[in-house]
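Is iron/sulfur cluster placement plausible here? Inputs below.
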Amino acid sequence: MADVERPGADEFLPEKRDLRSLRAAAPDCRGCELYRDATQVVFSAGRAGAPLALVGEQPGDREDLEGEPFVGPAGRLLDQALEAAGIDRGDVYVTNAVKHFRFHRQGKRRIHEKPAVGNIVACHPWLEAEFAAVRPRLVVCLGATAARSVLGRPARIQEERGRVQESAEGRPVLVTTHPSALLRLRDDPGWDAAFDAFVGDLERAAKAAADLAAD
Ligand code: URA
Ligand code: SF4
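Reply from A.M.:
I modeled the complex. Tokens:
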């Protein structure tokens, strides 16, 4: 059951479900409590028909201020990895499992907090409507929050990463790590291998999307 704080996004979705209508309706969503403290909704970037949909966790501090997904440090790393994988940014639709920034304050700083399962569930109708409008061949989940939303169950990223499976709604999905998790390894001896593994997953995703197109 949805609790009072989190009725879910369903009733805030517009009747018309193309990307433009969805984007226009999202700022009015009150499907969970996160809209209250965030600066704005961060919807998505990219076009309908993009073969790959990349799903992150939620907007970060920078994204919350700018209103665009993946424009902060994690976004720069994602761009680098996409380039290394030979994937054109124009071929990816980029969005998040949760569309408002969840954080707490520490002095002047806003500290990221993982979305609760209740936030993920509340926000899921947006994601599903986006997939229906964009019709990607493959959905790439960046990390556990995205996987929880898209697969509809908890996932172990390191065990499940890099292979094509099916979402709760029957969509082809590939799970990989989140670029923020990678960022934390930047000065580690394991950095090169971790970055290469991420690029490898993105390459597999692009190939799977191309193979699915040929079917
Ligand atoms: N991390 C995410 O998961 N999404 C963003 O948009 C930015 C950082
Ligand atoms: Fe609506 Fe999602 Fe924002 Fe919650 S996080 S208010 S469900 S858009």
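Short version: The pocket of uracil (ligand 1) is lined by residues 56-60, 63, 69-70, 72, 74-75, 96, 180 (CB under 6 Å).
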